[in-house]
Amino acid sequence: MPQTSVVFSGILGPGGSGQVQPGMGERGSGAGDLIFQDGRLVSGSLEALMEHLVPTVDYYPDATPPLTSPALAMRAMPPAGWAFSATRSPHSSAGLHPAGLWVVLGHKRTFIFTFLLTSRVFMPPHDLLARVGQICLEQRQQLEPGPEKAKLKSFSAKIVQLLKEWTEAFPYDFQDEKALGELKAIAYRVTQCDEENGTVKKAITQMIQSLLLSLAARSQLQELREKLRPPAVDKGPVLKAKPPAAQKDILGVCCDPLVLAQQLTHIELERVSSIHPEDLMQIISHTDSLDNHRPGPSEPVTCLTLQCRGDVAKTYSLEAYDSWFNCLSMLVATEVCRVVKKKHRTRMLEFFIDVAPGMNLSPVARLKKTWSKVKTAKFDVLEHHMDPSSNFCNYRTALQGATQRSQTANSSREKIVIPVFNLFVKDIYFLHKIHTNHLPNGHINFKKFWEISRQIHEFMTWTQVECPFEKDKKIQSYLLTAPIYSEEALFIASFESEGPENHMEKDSWKALRTTLLHRA
């Protein structure tokens, strides 16, 4: 199972000397409870970090870059099966995120973004917002007796800017009625100093309007995908042991692996684009509640595991992406296993080797006679890159090269990098599990959260590239709606193509046929 392979003792551990942050104006008792190393915030109490988030007249949360390491830059992965056919398989991207998110997620991963993202490990967003409101009120009360209204207006403008960054980077935090109520309460307080139609009031109005539009758009997208999703009891289109003889296959719709890869890339990144930073934090924000259900060595750490940890609605985007990848694998296996003639089955395998997962599913992998006729050179290269030894070292090296090329590329094709999502999830999961949230002195280990923020930021950046390929509705429709076999039906079709070769397979084949007859 891939785990975070680099030892972080010098990067994320509690060792090393630190300096206490000097005072930044009027602050509470926790203001000096922040530790910096080489100008970077590395630890602090939760109260001090919350106070550090809130601006004053003279201060706005800094853009201190997180600790980075070339070794840690290899934490996420290239696409599942596609990245290594660079000359044949395209890379694309889905729709852009709100512009404000990318201001926050620019080259400097700010303290604001990192703390807003990772603080949900310790408290829900609406509680953090309530505390921000309290600190704002305390700051305002200190300014109100003063004769200079300009200072009060300057402070109010900075608070509005903080809220604007929050609502643009994490709009879904405000779908919670408590959080939306806290936001409106803070907005009311900071606008009291502003004249009618003043700049602060206008900024607040625009911010809330944009927030409501973002929430509505996300809700509509989720509703649309729910309508397109098959009923949960089916877990995919209902399958028969054999499809109708006249049913077309993928080669009847698209005979060029390059074109198919382009359409797969469109679909892939449309789903990746619906994953937001706070969705990824669900991987770890509920992980401590799952101590009684820790994934074993062979159990994948995916969004489906997360359903036992918390609100399923919060993991919807992760679940949708996971479901898409599983359906694609099953579609590939269906296309291969349902072909009756070995010659045609061989052609189907060679076609899919270039572009899609599913080759390693048991019903496909067991077709030894078919595989003996397949030219496996490309598949051997792919298996080399997917070799799990040394924590997927080959794969990570390939990703590092793809990432470096994307940063300097002029071609939109070369700019696109898609991680292998399950490996990315595992890296985040183990980074959280291996490194403690708190240091021995009780401080939050903010080095750890800088690194989590860096990895999530990098993932989100990869979804920003425009897809250069033209959509083919006919091919996409087939990929999304073609009937697929259940696992049982796949084994039946596989055994009908190539009979069982050992006692275990013979017993499985007999049991499957009995089950099928009883259902009929």
UniProtKB/TrEMBL annotation:
Q: For this UniProt record, give its keywords in alphabetical order, as a comma-separated list.
A: Guanine-nucleotide releasing factor
Q: Which residues form the Ras-GEF domain?
A: 256-500
Entry GO CC: plasma membrane
Record region (Disordered): 10-29
Entry-linked InterPro entries: Ras-like_GEF (IPR008937), Ras-like_Gua-exchang_fac_N (IPR000651), Ras_GEF_dom_sf (IPR023578), RASGEF_cat_dom (IPR001895), RASGEF_cat_dom_sf (IPR036964)
Q: Which residues form the N-terminal Ras-GEF domain?
A: 37-212
Specify the superkingdom: Eukaryota
Q: Which GO molecular function annotation, any one, does this entry have?
A: guanyl-nucleotide exchange factor activity
GO BP annotations, alphabetical order: Ras protein signal transduction
Pfam families in UniProt: RasGEF, RasGEF_N
Q: Could you tell me which PANTHER family the record lists for this protein?
A: GUANINE NUCLEOTIDE EXCHANGE FACTOR (PTHR23113), RAS-GEF DOMAIN-CONTAINING FAMILY MEMBER 1A (PTHR23113:SF172)
Its name, as the record gives it, is Ras-GEF domain-containing family member 1A isoform X3
Which gene produces this protein? Rasgef1a
